[in-house]
Amino acid sequence: MAHRKIAIAVSILFIVQMLTAAIGNTFVQAFVDGDPNKTALTIGVLLMMFSGLVIAAIGLVLYQVLKLTKHRLATLVPAIRIIECVVAITFGTYVLTQLQTVPDHLLWVYILAGSAGVILGYLLFISKLVPRPIAVLGIIGYGLILLGVPLDFAGVLDMNQGIGQLMLVPGALFEVVVLPIWLIAKGFNKVQQSA
User: Fold this and answer.
1) How far is residue 81's CA from residue 49's CA, in Å, rounded to a whole number?
2) 32-67 burial code (b ≥16 CB/10 A, e <16)
3) d(CA 175, CA 22)
4) Secondary structure class of 42 (helix, strand, coil)
5) Residue 130 contacts by C-beta under 8 Å, 6 or more apart in sequence?
6) Distance (Å, rounded) from C-alpha 102 to C-alpha 100?
7) Residue 101: per-residue pLDDT
8) Count of Cβ atoms closer than 10 Å to residue 178 Cβ
């Protein structure tokens, strides 16, 4: 697949993933908050599972470009994204069969997303596949997610509200606005081999 097509595919996949996850999570959260509508719950879980499949696809498609940078490190991006997909499907199956969510389910997903994202940002930074400020935004965004998870587990903040939710904003901007707009407009730069 040509780099231009990969850039557009990645952009579309990031946007589709974020939208399906957001809508699906809204339906699941409504059920958790007391809405007894099992049809809405099922739709929400299926959207979350679909989002997981899209996450895996993002990793696999990105790998086509990232493998030209630091090959061994680049393999971690699709590997972690595939694990994230399996986790999403497993958690979704649990919700549908038990009619309750896995405690702190989003935090477990954030650990995987943040890990893959920091690696992605680093590879984009060293290779200059995109302008460095975009890569830095990714590193900061995913880094904040990784910082927020242990703080949430420790009860210092809640990643679903207040400061915790604000910590998700840079990563969301990277995935849904800045990186997709750049990739659609300009595509990936020629790979700069790193030492």
Assistant:
1) 13
2) eeeeeeeeebbebbebbbbbbebbbbbbebbbbbbb
3) 13
4) helix
5) 124, 179, 182, 183, 188, 189
6) 7
7) 86
8) 19
Question: In this structure, which long-range contacts are made by residues 165-168, counting pairs with CB atoms below 8 Å and at least 24 apart in sequence?
Answer: 168/144
Residues composing the chain? 195
Amino acid at site 36: P
**What is the rounded CA–CA span in Å between residue 41 and residue 49?**
12
**pLDDT of 1:** 61
Which pair of tokens denotes residue 97?
């069969």
pTM across the whole model: 0.92
Neighbours of 104 (CB within 10 A): 13
What DSSP string describes 48-101? HHHHHHHHHHHHHHHHHHHTTS-HHHHTHHHHHHHHHHHHHHHHHHHHHHHSSP
Spatial CA neighbour of 124 closest among 164, 163, 73, 79: 73
Q: For each of the chain's 195 residues, which pLDDT tens digit applies?
A: 688 999 999 999 999 999 999 999 999 999 989 999 999 999 999 999 999 999 999 999 999 999 999 999 999 999 999 999 999 999 999 999 999 888 888 899 999 999 999 999 999 999 999 999 999 999 999 999 999 999 999 999 999 899 999 999 999 999 999 999 999 999 999 875 554
